[in-house]
Known about the structure:
8 strands
Amino acid sequence: MATGAIYTQLCELKSQKKSGFAVLADPDKIAPADMQYLARLCNDAGVDYLFMGGSLLMAHQMELCIQRFKTESDIPVILFPGSPAQVTPYADALLYLSLISGRNPELLIGQHVASAPIVRASGLEVISTGYIIIDGGVQTTVSYMSNAMPIPADKPEIALCTAWAGELQGKHLIYLDAGSGARRPVSAEMITMVSSHTEIPLVVGGGIVSPEKVYENCKAGANLIVVGNAIERDPLLIKDMAQAAKAVSSLQ
């Protein structure tokens, strides 16, 4: 199992039945000049992690965005890469994503072989992640780019069996993602089924637009909630969403 500091924190959230909150920043959608403001908002809200990455990464400014963020914040930065090109030692950790819900060999192992030398040399804490795409009611960038059919939203048992397969293969983390811009977030029923029957931490993202949904998903068993699009539209949501995640933790 992974033994780095960030993964240890995630495992503690799982064992204590608590939840954290992460902000997702896409370097194609945010300018480096805005990262310091985002960092101050995250600091004030008590955000646990900044996820950094995107499906396309056309602007080639991820490293500068991370550097600017770190001038204002000690919040750990975790790479959420859309391709092997999105690896930089300026971050603190990397989700090493394997798309276990799809059948595209490039995203199961092919890109990992190509990126392995870069990842090993990066010095990053590497967290092997079973990445599962859930149907969010609209084709998202990640489903289009991966050429993968999402798991139906009303089939939590398929999501559980997929998560079990990832866990049995030795993945350190399960990530249920409805995708950026999803109309329908991952259901509480699916989250509860996966969380209650797996031993590794569970991350949930995609289509989460309100503090109420953050609270619901955390109560259902998500150990880390990731929000991007809603915060891009209204950065002031960060504080209410982070508080919603922590409110569930305080009940445990």
